[in-house]
Write a structure and sequence with these properties.
By secondary structure, the chain is an alpha+beta fold. It has four helices and four strands; from the N terminus they run E-E-E-E-H-H-H-H.
C-alpha cells in the first residue's frame, strides 16, 4: 500500500502498546497470552493471597491492583463477545 510516497507492507499481525493485533482482528491468542501472564502473576503473589494474616478485603485489593491489570492491559482494543468474557470471568472466579 502506498500513501503519500510512503510504502506500507501488509503483515499478519503486529504488536501495538503490548497488544498483538491481527489483520482479522482476532484476539483469541492475545487473551490466552494475557491469561497465562495473569496466572504467572497470581502465582507470584499466591503466598499473600493464601495468608491467614491478611483480611479478605486486602486480598481483593491485591488482586485488583497486581493481577487484574496484567490481564486487562490493552483490552480497550478487544471486541467483546460472550465467549471471551466467559474466559475472563472463569479466570477471575478461579483466582478469587
Amino acid at each position: 500500500m502506498k500513501i503519500d510516497n510512503s510504502s506500507f507492507e501488509r503483515v499478519e499481525e503486529f504488536k501495538h502498546l503490548g497488544t498483538t493485533i491481527t489483520y482479522q482482528n482476532s484476539i483469541q491468542e492475545e487473551i490466552k497470552r494475557r491469561l497465562m501472564s495473569g496466572n504467572a502473576c497470581y502465582y507470584l503473589v499466591q503466598y499473600l493471597l493464601s495468608s491467614s494474616l491478611l483480611s479478605k478485603n486486602l486480598k481483593i485489593k491485591i488482586y485488583r491492583t497486581v493481577v487484574l491489570p496484567v490481564v486487562l492491559c490493552g483490552c480497550e482494543s478487544w471486541l467483546p463477545s460472550l465467549r471471551k468474557e466467559h474466559r475472563l470471568k472463569m479466570f477471575e472466579n478461579r483466582v478469587l
